[in-house]
Amino acid sequence: MRLLGGPSSQHNRAGPWKRGPEKAPEWACVDQTPVTLALRMGGLQGLVLDRGPETGGTDTAEAPHRRFEYKYSFKGPHLTQSDGGIPFWVHTGNAIPSADQIRITPSLRSQKGSVWTKNTVNFENWEAEVTFRVSGRGRMGADGLAMWFTAGQGLEGPVYGAADSWNGVGIFFDSFDNDGKKNNPAILIVGNNGNLVYDHQNDGTTQALGTCLRDFRNKPYPVRAKITYYKKSLTVMINNGFTPDRDDFEFCAKVDNMVIPQEGYFGISAATGGLADDHDVLSFLLFRLTEPGQQQEPVAAEIPDEDKDKYREEFDNFQHELDKKKEEFQKEHPDVQGEAVEDIYETVNDREIRQVFEGQNRIHLEIKQLHRQLAMILDEQRRYVSAVTDEITKQQQAQAPPAPGQAPSLELETVIATQQEVLKNLNELRNAFSETLKQVDATQHEGNAAGAYESVQHFNDIKEHLHVVKRSIEHLAQRNEGPGEKVKCPDPPPMPSCLSTPHFLIFAAVQSVLFIGYVMYRSQQEAAAKKFF
């Protein structure tokens, strides 16, 4: 597979690598004739990674069954253990694990790091979903990120922080343009049988089995890659990181008739050079793929017989110790009886009754709060009536009302009558609340024999009482807002007249003239007194 278009597509090579005059779009991945990678690389023997015909592989009618493999996966939160390690994984170099992600390399120059699985993968078909983020300040970054499936752990090396001449396949997210052809950032699929040396100068384009141009740096959302190896076909799907949709994948590249080691390790590595990016991996999820209709291998079949016997023996020992401790506890505490298992969990009916009682308790608390508020309003009205009555008494004692002054007295009597009626209505509301509280208390003491229908009926009664209280309060508020029944405050006494501006200016001028005359007279007297000496 080769990336056509641009300078990178012009290769004047003899043999099967010479392309015809036809043109293809820049993004097209064109399959070549089925030749081995050994012929392509010129003399390498024994490599079994080759390309199929230009059909692009066959599509299955049914999707394969997926089973999550936790021993080959990691994701946050709580990604690391107390000692800083990653369960079932090992990290080397400058990799920095944290609770939410693994920083393969920080944004410093000449850094390398990688993470690898501790256990080998022994199933044939798999699918890996990787969530990562590559971010940096510059327009260009370096060097890139790589995902591996190899026969051995390539802990350190020159190829994106991992070892060269690997036996397996690597998916490279190359962010630096080494060959200067402006074909980066790019995603490449490069296979190796252990004898191939990676071509850094050409960004691996001469060795890539599949490639696509995708910008994965500085995206608003993490970039997701889905790598599927199923029926000897390797497919790479990419989520560009522009949307938070986890399933928004687009096709990148596919390699058919690809043979990889039957057992191997998964790994993720990254490296920086003169330029530096932060290479963060948020999650790596691995799924085992099984063909539809094929019987799945039981989990117990993956455990060796020796481990099974050891685990069974440990379980028997723990069970024996537990039974022994139970017997000792019962002998020491014969009066203590354990709670029955069926009493620990509540039934559906018990849960419904508990929810009904909790609702009634909340209503009861709300009604109590309303009762307190009404009592406060009643006290305020009483204080207001008493204050008005005292004021009227004081006015009557201070001075006798004039003959035409009967109208204010009538208004005050009207106000007092209105307030008394308000007090009467508030007492009625208080009695209604008391009846409602009694009904709620009676409902709560009925117990489990009440039934769902009676609980609903009590709720309806409480609702009706609340509506009656609300209407009564609104009616009282409307009556108290009448303009004719409001108590008018007496008019304030007239303010005393102040000195006007012209009078103030005349007074200031006269005072100034008198002061100046006094000063002149004083100076003349002092001058006349000096002549006698």
TrEMBL record:
Keyword NADP in record: no
One of the Pfam families matching this protein, by short name: Lectin_leg-like
SUPFAM superfamilies: Concanavalin A-like lectins/glucanases (SSF49899)
Record-given protein name: L-type lectin-like domain-containing protein
Subcellular location: Endoplasmic reticulum-Golgi intermediate compartment membrane
Keyword set includes Flavoprotein: no
GO molecular function: D-mannose binding
GO biological process, one term: endoplasmic reticulum to Golgi vesicle-mediated transport
Alphabetical list of InterPro entries matching this protein: ConA-like_dom_sf, Intracellular_Lectin-GPT, Lectin_leg
Membrane topology summary: Single-pass type I membrane protein
Annotated ranges, domain L-type lectin-like: 66-289
Bilayer-crossing regions: 504-521
Keyword list, A-Z: Disulfide bond, Lectin, Membrane, Signal, Transmembrane, Transmembrane helix
Annotated region (Disordered), positions in chain: 1-26
Gene Ontology cellular-component annotations: COPII-coated ER to Golgi transport vesicle; endoplasmic reticulum membrane; endoplasmic reticulum-Golgi intermediate compartment membrane; Golgi membrane
PANTHER family: LECTIN, MANNOSE BINDING 1 LIKE, VESICULAR MANNOSE-BINDING LECTIN
